[in-house]
Design a protein that fits this description.
The structure is a single chain. By secondary structure, the chain is α/β, with parallel strands linked by helices. α1 links the parallel β1 and β2. α4 packs across α5. The protein is globular. Helix content is 40%, strand content 18%.
């Protein structure tokens, strides 16, 4: 049996970034990739609450996994504090993400990670991918109208 390419897609943990990465991940999946989509535990629970507890079931070769955001518990019906999440991304996401990549690469039931697709606003996926010698691509989710010439 031929092994599929395996992309680990990790968006910045804010709604618009997650939505853009999810759309891109679906395109990769349509082209034959196995997808592991990484969300924070907080955002994953919000997604399940809004879409239903079984909303992520039944997608072959499209898996959702979580990493901690290292923030104190907050109201699940509200967005997290943006400065706090930005600070946590910079300080706390590298170790759990690296651990996740190692776990995925040693799992028996899925092919090893062939690439990481990261939101362009985060440095930790680049560091983790370089440490583990996994190719990385950056997806910049900002709108074209955000660019100035």
């Amino acid at each position: 049996m031929e092994s599929k390419p395996h992309a680990v897609c990790v968006p910045f943990p804010l709604q618009s970034h997650i939505k853009a990465m999810l759309k891109f991940s679906k395109l990769l999946h349509h082209k034959g990739f196995l997808i592991t989509f990484v969300n924070t535990e907080f955002n994953h629970q919000r997604f399940l609450k809004s879409r239903g507890p079984n909303s992520l079931d039944g997608f072959p070769d499209f898996r959702f996994v979580t990493i901690p955001d290292s923030l104190p518990p907050s109201d699940p019906n509200a967005s997290q504090d943006i400065p706090s999440i930005c600070d946590s991304v910079m300080k706390n996401f590298l170790a759990p993400f690296t651990d996740l990549l190692v776990k995925l690469n040693t799992a028996n039931n899925i092919p090893p990670v062939t690439c990481v697709v990261s939101d362009g606003a985060m440095p930790f996926p680049v560091t983790a991918a370089q440490q583990l010698r996994i190719p990385i691509a950056m997806l910049f989710t900002i709108s074209a109208c955000s660019l100035w010439l």
